[in-house]
Amino acid sequence: MADKKVAVIMSTYNGEAFIEEQLDSILAQSYKNIEIVVRDDGSKDKTVEIIKEYQKKYKNIQLFEGENLGFIKSFFELLKLVDADYYSYADQDDIWIENKIELAVNSLNKLDDTKPNMAFGKSDYYDENMQFIGESEKNREYSFLKSLFSCVSQGMTMTVNKKTRDMIIQNMPKSCFFHDWWTYILCVSMGNVAYDNVTTVKYRRRKQNATSEGQGYIRLLVWRIKNLLFKNGMKDIKQQMLNFKEIYYNELSEENKKILDLFSNEKYSFIIALKKAFYPKKIRNSLIDDFMLRIIFILGVL
Prior knowledge:
By secondary structure, this protein is an alpha/beta fold. The protein has 12 helices and 9 strands.
């Protein structure tokens, strides 16, 4: 198992407050054949200085300094910068459980490596001071249909194989909602997903966090309404589907082609809206989320 090299890819931006804790947790992993590859996305603080100090002590840390691209493009750039067997996305401010990579490698080693594969686990939520908030949602059911409208795997819990990485960098999306969501759709649609029902990451929730995870039900509902309805969130989801369709349509199964054709339809039609709204299979894991999405279809927002 240990001959498989894992590249831990981390995009940093003004992360001086917490990056040492994250680097320490990665360096303390039980699986040792890892390389930490960092791309700094134009930090203005001491993030780069801290990483360079770690490089003096550890030979398995690479640092690339770049212009500010935003975290999505920065992660995709990172995939180009290193060759490995497996790749783990890492945020700059979390703390990893020591067997995170070992669990992922064990799962990925059992899968057909000629397909895009992904392994992921759970995370627990913590505040800025690493005080426990709660567990991530337990419902991790996934399908290609569900992957179009939600990503049940968080990026910092993901590890993917080289096939996944190669497919991404060979056909970079023009845009996507998040880098991890794009990765998730790719693996669900054409490869394999392995889920370990074990906490592998202590996810530090801060005001600056870009996602809705770990906010509590009421705040999560407000975030979804504000970001998905009033900040072009649904438009971005539709565009992500269209980009995925443009790149991978011919590689999909006939069933998945039909699903993508229906839900990525660009012109509003009341008949098509009804077909989406009354689609017989569950589209989101949560009943309230599933119901809201079907209303959105009828309204023509998505």
